[in-house]
Structure formats: structure tokens, C-alpha cells
Amino acid sequence: MIYGLLGWCVEVFWTGMGSLFRGDFTLQARTSIWMFFVYGLALLLEPIHHRIRHWPIWMRGSVYTVIIFAIEYMTGLILSSFHLCPWDYSGTTWSVHGLIRLDYAPAWFLASLLFEKIHDYLTEDEPMIVVPKKRYS
């Protein structure tokens, strides 16, 4: 749920900023309910994170980016077969079958490292925010 919600938030910000760059100062954003489930698949990165956590950051981000592209391609292919895919990158220069955009690699690289930090936060033994215990006199 956390990855799905986080993905939605990032997508709303991303598409809203895209509106700004197109001159739409309403910052209108767009997403789909389907994207909640697609972003939720970031859960699949967790076991990989455990295995490659000691690798340099550029290698980890690269591995995650390739996996994210694979997930995006496969989910796009499945959703497209039912005419439900909420994205279509056809006609863009770096598109692969209209399902992924290779020029998004830097964004996925950074997003994957953000998800890695969130995974670390969610699985730590000690919470980052400590609520003081109430003392009774």
C-alpha cells in the first residue's frame, strides 16, 4: 500500500510539473487507479535490495531501473491487451512499443533509490520518530 500511495503522489507531482512546463499554470495532474497497483509492485524490489545492498549506488540504481522498466513494460502489455493501459508513449523518440520511455531512466533511477530508503525506514528495528512515554507522578 505504501509503495502504491507513494507512486501516486510522485506521479501527481510529475504530471503536475509537466503541466507547468507546457504553460498550464493550473498545474493539472493526472493518474489512474491502475497505477496504484503498478507502483505497488515496487514491493518486488525489496528482496533484490537485500541482496545488492552492499553494491555501489550507481549499480543498485541501474539494476532497479532495469527492473522497473521490465515491470512497466509487462504491466503495460497486460493492461493494453484489455485496452486499460493509462499511458501511451507512442510517438515519443525514446519509446519502446509505446510502453516505456528510455529517457525516463534518470527519473526511475532516482525514484528507485528513494524507494530503497523508504524500504530501509520501514524495516528498521528502531523507528525514526520516537514518541516519548508519558510519565506519571
Please tell me the overall pLDDT. Answer: 90
Number of helices: 5
Gyration radius, rounded = 18 Å
Element pattern in H and E: HHHHEEH
Q: Fraction of residues in helices? A: 55-70%
Provide the spatial order of strands within the biggest beta sheet: 1-2
Instruction: Name the structural class.
Output: mainly alpha
Cα separation of the termini: 41 Å
Unreliable residue stretches: none
What's the overall geometry?
globular
Number of strands: 2
The fraction of residues assigned to DSSP E strands is under 5%
Main sheet properties: 2 strands, antiparallel
Write a short abstract of this structure.
The chain has 137 residues and is mainly α. It has helices at 2-21, 33-40, 45-52, 57-81, 105-123, and strands at 95-96, 100-101.
Provide an overview of this structure:
The protein is 58% helix and 3% strand. With 137 residues, the chain is an all-alpha fold. It has a domain at 33-123. It has a two-stranded antiparallel ribbon. The protein is globular.
